[in-house]
Amino acid sequence: MDDGKIDFSAISDEGVTWTLLGTLYLRAYESRLPRPILGDRHAAEALSRIDYDFAKLRRRLHPNGNQFLVALRAKVLDDWCTDFLTRTPDATVLQLGCGLDSRMLRLDAEGAHPWYDLDIPAVIDLRRRLYPEKGNHQMIGASVTDTGWLDKVPGDRPVLIVAEGLFPYLTADQMRRLLPRLTAHFDTGELLFDGLAPSMVRMGRLFQWPVRDGHEVERMDPRLTLAGQVPITDLGHLIPVRTYRLLYQFMHAVPPLRRLLVDYRFTF
Ligand SMILES: C[S@@+](CC[C@H](N)C(=O)[O-])C[C@H]1O[C@@H](n2cnc3c(N)ncnc32)[C@H](O)[C@@H]1O
User: How far apart are CA 221 and CA 224, in angstroms?
Assistant: First the structure.
């Protein structure tokens, strides 16, 4: 029977792509808590339209603290986005590895900015069924490592490039090629992304690119200037559940734990 739900069976349970469902699930879960940090109600709406074995997903994800990790990571990035877009009303937004994230609805519901959401073609096919393209909001189905897709994005405006939960899955060589390609295409802008410490990268089967410090990214592309690096534990005080708040605050006090997941902001 066709119940109008979006069939997720085209997405394998094994590869990187599956992770987009995990982050969506955790954001939806967090949005239902009393006093949420991100409160992404669009994630909850999107999730309700997807046909998937969510009991299995829940067992695999253990939303016992990870929902705050995902919410804090997105909150830092959203705040930086808002800051840039407020100062730069003529900016274009380019989101890489967008998955089923609803940032354009959270931050640009009126479509004030030309906004490009990129992910691999199978994901963009699903995304188009959840969030129809309209007005200024467009989607690009391509691997970020391919050349050519950037021609679809006009380079004549300042740009806000956001890559959440993507770069750790690329290799250092891919990053070394990608960063200068991005910054050469636009005159000026900001690049926001999250990076994992080497110990985190060693722990995850799919992770490939660790970031020890934002300055090493400047060395990969000299056009980039580090403008901020915020460990997500920095915002641990926002967590509404005492046990997890204390856990994140403990992690923040221990330098190797503090640097496990850091949001980075670069200007160029
Ligand atoms: C952890 S999910 C994050 C999704 C989304 N940014 C979010 O926060 O919910 C990783 C995303 O990166 C995408 N991805 C992985 N490798 C990619 C590539 N080479 N090109 C484009 N997207 C890629 C996956 O398809 C997936 O949607």
Answer: 6
- Contact (CB, 8 A) for 196 and 260: yes
* Nearest CA-CA partner of 106 in 164, 156, 166, 33: 164
- Domains along the chain with CATH numbers: 6-61 (no CATH), 70-267 (3.40.50.150)
Q: Which residues contact 144 (CB under 8 A, 6 or more apart)?
A: 96, 97, 118, 163, 166, 170, 178
Taking CA atoms, 193 is separated from 119, 168, 245, 250, in Å, by 15, 10, 24, 24
Q: What is the CA radius of gyration of the chain?
A: 18
Ligand 1 contacts (CB < 6 A) are: 16-17, 19-20, 23-24, 97-99, 101, 119-120, 123, 143-145, 164-166, 169
Q: Which atom of ligand 1 is nearest to the CA of 98?
A: 6
User: Mind listing the pLDDT tens digit for each residue in 205-237?
Assistant: 999 999 999 999 999 999 999 999 999 999 999
d(CA 33, CA 16): 27
What is the CA angle 262-175-252, rounded to 5?
10
pLDDT digits (tens, 9 = 90+) for 98-145: 999 999 999 999 999 999 999 999 999 999 999 988 899 999 999 999
Contact between 103 and 95 (Cβ < 8 Å):
yes
Work out which ligand 1 atom sits closest to the CA atom of 20: 2
130 vs 135: CA distance, rounded Å: 16
| Residue positions counted in the chain | 268
